[in-house]
Write a structure and sequence with these properties.
3 helical TM bundles of succinate and fumarate reductases; 0% strand; 121 residues; 74% helix; Succ_DH_anchor; heme binding
């Protein structure tokens, strides 16, 4: 004879919880580290901070790659956050899907713009 105590919980949803939480922490940490590196370069630079200094900081290929990696992390960070907001607060499926598509298109456009700015395409 089998006895089950309590109610059986019915789990629904996309089950993104731990993965999303972890990705938000990792991308946030990467962005914080990048900010510290950039601030250190600015703090330890002599002279006025102008266009030449900014262009010099981002002239090295490694800095362009690092910057784009951080931008990609930022875009993923934004996507996870906005997707969760749309899933939690927008109930009509059609409107939620439209907002998610708009968010994806906007973020891909931002990625293209970042590539254009960093590598002057």
């Amino acid at each position: 004879m089998s006895v089950n105590y309590g109610s059986k919980r019915i789990v629904v949803g996309a089950h993104y919880g731990l993965r999303d939480w972890l990705s938000q922490r990792i991308t946030g940490g990467l962005m914080a580290l990048f900010t510290i590196i950039l601030l250190a370069q600015l703090i330890f630079t002599r002279g006025p901070i102008g266009y030449d200094l900014w262009a010099g900081i981002f002239a090295a290929q490694w800095m362009k790659v690092l910057t784009f990696s951080v931008i990609a992390a930022l875009l993923y960070h934004v996507w996870v956050g906005m997707r969760d907001v749309w899933m939690d607060y927008v109930q009509p499926v059609g409107i939620r899907l439209a907002l998610q598509i708009f968010t994806i298109v906007w973020l891909v456009g931002c990625a293209g713009w970042a590539i254009q700015v960093l590598w002057k395409i």
